[in-house]
């Protein structure tokens, strides 16, 4: 496993092309966003003729991580690269890495994006005020700590009565 601190922020032209190909891979559990918007695609570098994609799973037990890595490998191969996937687990992924565009796509898809930063004690241990992605009301209630996936909680808006998932702050 690669150390994230070894990753370089600058990319060669080939690495930029490889990044563009890998970045388009949708998340299999939340297909409205791609792996780059979620922040799980950390980098792509050209090393010894291989396009090395560095991927950080949302959590170590994520059941989608192998599907994501395989999809990135296929995308890189289809773009003409010899791919290699490196799983990066340190530092661990955080919802702070979801891009602004990714947050908007989640909201438009009907999933409330994370509210607080991962370093917020309220986000981790307190009650979070979650706005309904349909009508924007904060008059919502948590129905279940777990929604359609372990990284989401299930809520209901008491204003418009719509159920929705909330992408938990991690």
Considering the chains and any ligands shown, give keywords for the structure.
170 residues, alpha/beta, GMP Synthetase, Chain A, domain 3, 2 domains, 4-stranded mixed sheet, 3-stranded mixed sheet, 7 strands, disordered N terminus
Amino-to-carboxy terminus distance: 22 Å
Looking at CATH, the homologous superfamily of the largest domain is Fe-S cluster assembly (FSCA)
How many independent structural domains?
Answer: 2
Question: The CATH topology of the largest domain is what?
Answer: GMP Synthetase, Chain A, domain 3
Count of helical stretches: 5
Give me the Rg, rounded.
17 Å
Helix content: 25-40%
The run of helices and strands is: HHEEHEHEHEEE
Main pleated sheet: 4 strands, mixed
The CATH class of the largest domain, by name, is Alpha Beta
> What proportion strand?
15-25%
Number of strands: 7
Please tell me what the overall shape is: elongated
Instruction: Give the strand order, joined by hyphens, for the main sheet.
Output: 4-7-6-5
Structural class: alpha/beta
């Amino acid at each position: 496993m690669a150390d994230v601190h070894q990753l370089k922020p600058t990319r060669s032209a080939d690495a930029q092309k490889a990044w563009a190909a890998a970045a388009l891979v949708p998340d299999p559990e939340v297909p409205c966003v791609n792996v780059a918007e979620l922040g799980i695609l950390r980098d792509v570098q050209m090393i010894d003729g291989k396009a090395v994609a560095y991927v950080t799973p949302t959590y170590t037990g994520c059941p989608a991580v192998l599907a994501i890595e395989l999809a990135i490998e296929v995308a890189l191969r289809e773009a003409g690269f010899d791919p290699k996937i490196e799983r990066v687990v340190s530092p661990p992924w955080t919802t702070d890495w979801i891009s602004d565009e990714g947050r908007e796509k989640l909201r438009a898809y009907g999933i409330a994006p994370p509210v607080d930063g991962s370093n917020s004690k309220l986000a981790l241990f307190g009650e979070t005020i979650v706005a309904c992605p349909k009508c924007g009301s904060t008059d919502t209630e948590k129905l279940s700590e777990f929604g359609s996936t372990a990284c989401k909680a299930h809520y209901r808006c008491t204003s418009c009565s719509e159920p929705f998932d909330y992408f938990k702050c991690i």
